[in-house]
Amino acid sequence: MCAAQYLPGTASLIEELDKKLMVLLRDGRTLIGYLRSVDQFANLVLHRTIERIHVGSEYGDIPRGIFVVRGENVVLLGEIDEEKEANMNLKEVGLEEILEAQSKQQAEKEEQDKLRSKIFKIGRAHV
Questions:
Q1: What angle do CA 62, 68, 71 make, to 5 degrees?
Q2: Predicted local confidence at residue 17, as pLDDT
Q3: Three-state SS at 7
Q4: Beta carbons within 10 angstroms of residue 32's beta carbon
Q5: Alpha-carbon gap, residue 11 to 16, rounded angstroms
Q6: Contact 23, 46 (CB under 8 A)
Q7: What confidence tens digit (pLDDT) does each residue in 2-49 have?
Q8: The 20-25 sheet, strands edge to edge
Q9: Between residues 121 and 27, the one the model is more confident about
Q10: In which band, very low, low, confident or very high, does the pLDDT at 122 lie, cut at 50, 70 and 90?
Q11: Neighbours of 36 (CB within 10 A)
């Protein structure tokens, strides 16, 4: 009997065991690792995990080792095609460099959010 016949959803993750997966978390972080275990709540155990940070066309990886992810924090999960990953048009940079770029990007976003908020408040005041 196929697992998908009696437990659709989480049980289909059993087919992904030992495969390299990308997991997008609710807080925006991206993890890449090998799925070693999954339970009925879609809690995941990832092995040889890295946290990948993207800024524009650059990325950096933070080694995380074994990582346990609560199922409720998973937004997106997908298998990594290692051939396509090797041919991607992204440039790997050092950890310090990507963290600095991420910090700068977040500061710019916060500044844009402040400006939007001011414009919205001014617009509402005139209504």
A1: 115
A2: 92
A3: coil
A4: 18
A5: 10
A6: yes
A7: 444 545 555 578 888 999 999 999 999 999 999 999 998 999 999 999
A8: 74-79, 20-25, 30-38, 44-55, 58-69, 91-92
A9: 27
A10: confident
A11: 15
Token duo for residue 21: 């997966």
Contacts for 121-127: CB closer than 8 Å, 24+ residues apart: none
Collapsed DSSP state (helix, strand, coil) of residue 46: strand
* Cβ neighbours for 29, distance < 8 A, ≥ 6 positions apart: 51
Residue 88: per-residue pLDDT: 81
pTM, two decimals, is: 0.76
The CA distances from residue 73 to 58, 113, 118, in Å, are 25, 25, 32
